[in-house]
Design brief:
146 residues; mainly alpha; Non-ribosomal Peptide Synthetase Peptidyl Carrier Protein, Chain A; two-stranded antiparallel sheet; two-stranded antiparallel ribbon; 4 helices; 60% helix; elongated
Length: 146
């Protein structure tokens, strides 16, 4: 079992996947910081100095002015400001991944068109695949015009 696991872990695609997961986690942290520290403060300022991280609905009877106070006291809250931040995180990450996949598909399509050089053609008499430069079909022996 250890030998099988070692073979699996040392395969190129498993290592590539691990690197992708690590980079993806770091990318997620960067996007979270972008949303929380760069995008949301100006939006909050435009909307009248709203701090989205402090938008919450208190479900207890005691009044709390900040989310930190409510969490410290152990109060039940609906944190819709944090939820909005997470939605924005998701949209930015999804859009970035969309752009990356779109670019990869474009490169893949270009690479495929360059790589597909025809090496065979179809014999018009017996419909067999023959080499592109053949002047006579090896299957039906018909003469092929170039």
């Amino acid at each position: 079992m250890f030998k099988e696991f070692k073979e699996f872990a040392m395969r190129g695609n498993a290592i590539d996947m691990a690197v992708g997961i690590i980079i993806g986690a770091s990318f997620g942290n960067i996007i979270t910081s972008l949303v929380n520290d760069i995008i949301m403060p100006p939006i909050g300022l435009i909307l009248g100095r709203v701090d989205f991280t402090n938008l919450f609905i208190n479900l207890s009877s005691i009044k709390y002015t900040t989310l930190v106070e409510a969490k410290t006291a152990g109060a039940a809250t609906l944190n819709y400001g944090l939820f909005l931040n997470n939605i924005l995180d998701f949209i930015i990450v999804a859009f970035a991944i969309f752009l990356i996949i779109k670019q990869l598909n474009k490169f893949k399509t270009k690479f495929k068109t360059v790589q597909t050089i025809e090496t065979t053609k179809t014999c018009p008499f017996c419909i067999s695949l023959i080499p592109i430069n053949a002047t006579r079909c090896p299957f039906c022996t018909s003469e092929i015009k170039a």
